[in-house]
Amino acid sequence: MEDVNLLRELEPVVAENMDRHLKVVRDWHPHDYVPWSEGRDFAFLGGEDWEPGDTRIGPTARASLIVNLLTEDNLPAYHHNLLTALGSGGAWGEWIYRWTAEEARHAITLRDYLVVTRAVDPVDLERRRMALMASGPAREPVELLPNVVYTALQELATRLSHRNTGAATGCPIGEQLLARIAADENLHMLFYRNLVGAALELAPDQTVRAITDVVKGFEMPGAGQPGFRRMAVEIANGGIYDLRLHCDRVIMPILRHWRVFERTDLGPEGEVAREELSAFMHVLDAQASRFVARREERAALAAVR
């Protein structure tokens, strides 16, 4: 089924899930989650600029907060990719603009929280934001099926990352804020997960092919930001988001929900894609196990020293 036909066939599913989303989503206000009483002027207005001793949050949680905020900051690029993949008309357009409005709150609130509490260096943060947003388009796919598959997985991954980052801050306000953002991401994940489920019924071979390609090439949406690899390693070593979590809490649950390995309606192309996916998941599982084993070995050595 061509993308244009599938786009049309899926539009009633979009409308149905948009209605479901609007019934369950909870409105919230960014200003409620920022401890404004902790704020003070920086040197430009006669106060004091940030210094490392200002923060009460550990380095791993700080790295994750920066990665998560810059990921949310790149919303214009994601919005552009969604419009390119899905179009701006009808139910598709209504959803994209609603999704964008909800996502915008995440960056607003996270930045206010981080700057007011002096959790991170605001100058470094702004330089990173400028570098990321000036670097060009996001790396998300712009074809219909790969885009909705990627977004379903990415929303689930982001939900997990936000929740674990909040717990790692050791700050009750920060944890509450990131749990609130994670709740939004969960509802967004359900929307895209349901779309992929409907696509599997309409075009099973094409959709399984898209699932396989996206899972094999998956990168978090913030991968293009400055210093991402180094911070991703620190975040993984801290247990906030690592390959084991990616495999067990993101990829496998959603594949089970879509019943990818149980379907009986695949043609030759779909079967080939599914076998490829199965082989990849075995490799990913082994890599995740090795990562955890090495991390535990390093922790044991550090304890002895």
UniProtKB/TrEMBL annotation:
One Pfam family named in its UniProt record? FA_desaturase_2
Q: Which InterPro entries match?
A: Fatty_acid_desaturase-2, Ferritin-like_SF, RNR-like
For this record, an example GO cellular component is: cytosol
Question: What name does this protein carry?
Answer: Putative acyl-[acyl-carrier protein] desaturase
Q: Which organism is it from?
A: Planobispora takensis
> What PANTHER family does the entry give?
ACYL- ACYL-CARRIER-PROTEIN DESATURASE-RELATED, STEAROYL-[ACYL-CARRIER-PROTEIN] 9-DESATURASE 7, CHLOROPLASTIC
Q: Which residues bind Fe cation 2?
A: E103, E155, E185, H188
Q: Which SUPFAM superfamilies match?
A: Ferritin-like
Which UniProt key words apply to this protein?
Answer: Fatty acid biosynthesis, Fatty acid metabolism, Iron, Lipid biosynthesis, Lipid metabolism, Metal-binding, Oxidoreductase
